[in-house]
Amino acid sequence: MLNKTLKIVSILSLFILNKQGLSKDKDKERLAGKSGVTVSLSTKGNDIAFDQTSIQIPFAENITLTFVNQALKGSEILHNVAVLKPGSVDTFLKALQLSGYDLDKIKNDPSILVMTEALAPGASQSVQFHPSEPGFYPFVCVMPGHADMLGMKGTLNITKASKK
Ligand SMILES: [Cu+2]
After folding, report:
1. 137 and 88 in contact (C-beta within 8 Å)?
2. I need a labelling partner for 125 at 20 to 30 A (CA). Which of 11, 37, 58, 80 fits?
3. Domain ranges within the chain, ordered by starting residue
């Protein structure tokens, strides 16, 4: 049952991902309404990397981030994503190393705005967060070595919403 649900969520996420890939600025503006903004992020096959390292979206009070671990099923490579407060990536990565990459210990770190669970290959999760203002919000994978040694990180550039 859970597997089936995960599968459906994965398929839906892929659909959103494809749609997002084709979307132009106008679509992004449309999404900036009261319903909030959605962002899709995934990994690059079995690489320890996100598919995007720089993402620009308009500001909204509610941002929904859907993350898909695209690693091949047999690979057993776990990934997750944590969105951090602007300017906090170095402090956070140090705290992460000190925690021994322990998700339970790090999950209450003040730098984290939102974080997914550790996701198995093929799994996805949508999370919501509420940025207080436009800015450059770092995102990282907290699996051991992924962000700090292998560079699995990026930046979400939340711009002022268009007034049009
Ligand atoms: Cu990772």
Report:
1. no
2. 58
3. 2-159
Each residue's pLDDT, cut to its tens digit, for the chain (164 residues) gives 455 544 544 444 444 444 444 444 444 444 444 568 999 999 999 999 999 999 999 999 999 999 999 999 899 999 999 999 999 999 999 999 999 999 999 999 999 999 999 999 999 999 999 999 999 999 999 999 999 999 999 999 999 976 65
Tell me the whole-structure pTM to 2 decimals.
Answer: 0.78
We find that the CATH architecture of domain 2-159 is Sandwich (2.60)
Instruction: Mark the residues whose beta carbon lies below 5 A from ion ligand 1.
Output: 79, 141, 143, 146, 152
Give the integer Cα–Cα distance in Å for 95 and 15: 36
Q: How far is the CA of 47 from the centre of ligand 1 (A)?
A: 9
Structure tokens at 106: 């790090």
41 CA distance to ligand 1 middle (Å) = 12
Going from the Cα of 156 to the center of ligand 1, the distance in angstroms, rounded, reads 17
The rounded Å distance from CA 30 to ligand 1 centre is: 31
